[in-house]
Amino acid sequence: MKHYFHGGIHPADGTDKLLSNQKPIRIYRPKIVEISMKQSPGSVCEAIVKKGDRVSRGDLIGEPKRFGGANIHASISGMVIDVRIDSVSFSQDIEIVVIEADDKEEPEYPTGDYEERLLDLSDYSKDMIIAKMKDGGLTGLGGAGFPTYIKYETKEKISHVLINAAECEPYLTCDHMLMLEHSYAIINGVLLLVKASGAEKALICLEDNKQDAAQVMERIISDKDLPIEIKILPTRYPQGGERQLVEATLGMEVPAGQLPASIGVIINNVGTAKALADIVLGDRPLISRLVTVTGKVKDQGNYLVPIGTRYSELIGASGGFTADISRVIEGGPMTGTCLQIGGSHEELTGSISKVTSGLLVLEDEQKDETPCIRCGECERVCPAGLAPFKIDFAAIENDISLCDKLYATECISCGCCSYVCPAKRELAYRITEAKKEIFKLRWESNK
Ligand code: SF4
Ligand code: SF4
């Protein structure tokens, strides 16, 4: 079986990950959380609490406005001190529920046997697990934040669940640390995912720079006749892209425009498997997540925080910026979103959502684009098999129809093209914008 995919790059030497994966997970407890009713791009909820309400940790505070959303729960116990409106892109008004913690110390997150040993899951049916995914507000923790139950309500016959533990983005180590410290919960969660899907087996897919985590999990599953296999893949970005993972592990291609379920595959991030175990076996909805805080901050590490923890507070807890001019990125350096350039950490707005894998602070570098020299490097590394420079020209000309013909919608926004471009062209950014425009036009023409 081959273990590679088309294109890709080695964007870093691994020392970036050492900044944050040498210390145990730390728990951070904020006094205030600001929980957005938009926890991922396609998921908008309506707040069902109001200013002055008292909430307990785990209470439901937001319900989806339409299909494609996931429940939102209070991540700390306390008083709702505000429900304010934030206007974001596409003129959407998004509610932010602000909760101030009670004076008394919140107890530790409850844990259970599922963190210590493999449990007998025979009492849990497919329907029961899917219902708990829905109630518990489970979404993908690795990227797009798609509600997990929707993937499992598929009518397709599923043969494999791929657990994406590649964590191929430079700097991010939260999945790695989760596997080292919560391996039993993860394996129990994976077994629940196998039951919910009816799949023959799950493959836990890691890059070969996480051998220690692979060994920890291998020890748990060895000699037990479980439908789980550990798959070690070469460290190569974007190994964790859904299509790339399917190609590298199963040697199959997901047809353009279709979901992996169309070929019998469901893919979940390893953090999602752990969160499912918390929901089903720990009776705790998705209210916290592990976040890598790294780069140019004083005290890099992985922090377990309630959803809604303010960026400013978490950067403050990690000692603040150490660069002269800081660029703050939510996520990793390749696919993350730039939150702020310059200024102090106190000026950061926004808070941790279910999909925030990291807060990365880099020294800001000026990038001056120069004309394309037709070297072909962007085409060589593109894992989607596109010709980024051609789409870029079309995007600059605002020729969206040509971008569509050049398959811009197949772009996975991995950033490989921009990374290798000697002319420092912002290819990934413009192609991603063109892709959004194509989907917008398609949606409008279907109205
Ligand atoms: S065109 Fe898209 S998929 Fe291809 S390298 Fe650039 S960002 Fe990645
Ligand atoms: S890598 Fe940059 S310079 Fe080379 S073909 Fe692509 S856009 Fe042009």
Describe this structure in words.
- By secondary structure, this protein is an alpha/beta fold.
- It has three domains: 26-109 and 286-363, no CATH class; 110-280, Rossmann fold (3-Layer(aba) Sandwich); 377-446, no CATH class.
- It is built from 14 helices and 18 strands.
- The protein has helices at residues 15-18, 126-135, 148-152, 174-181, 183-197, 211-221, 242-250, 270-280, 311-317, 377-381, 388-396, 400-405, 416-420, 427-446; strands at residues 26-27, 32-36, 38-40, 43-47, 54-55, 60-64, 72-73, 78-87, 93-101, 160-165, 201-207, 228-233, 265-269, 288-295, 301-306, 326-330, 337-341, 358-363.
- The strands form four sheets. The protein has a six-stranded mixed β-sheet, with helices on both faces. The protein has a four-stranded antiparallel β-sheet with strand order 2-9-8-5, with no helix packed on it.
- Helix 5 crosses helix 8 (270-280) and helix 11 crosses helix 14 (427-446).
- The longest helix is centred in the last third of the chain and has 20 residues, at 427-446.
- The protein is globular and about 60 Å long.
- One iron/sulfur cluster (SF4) binds next to helix 13 and helix 14.
What's the helix and strand layout?
Blueprint (H helix, E strand, L loop, with lengths): L14 H4 L7 E2 L4 E5 L1 E3 L2 E5 L6 E2 L4 E5 L7 E2 L4 E10 L5 E9 L24 H10 L12 H5 L7 E6 L8 H8 L1 H15 L3 E7 L3 H11 L6 E6 L8 H9 L14 E5 H11 L7 E8 L5 E6 L4 H7 L8 E5 L6 E5 L16 E6 L13 H5 L6 H9 L3 H6 L10 H5 L6 H20 L1
Parallel strand pairs: 1-15, 10-11, 10-13, 11-12, 14-18
Antiparallel strand pairs: 2-9, 3-4, 4-6, 5-8, 6-7, 8-9, 14-15, 16-17, 16-18
This protein binds iron/sulfur cluster (2 copies).
The site of one iron/sulfur cluster has 15 residues, from helix 13 and helix 14.
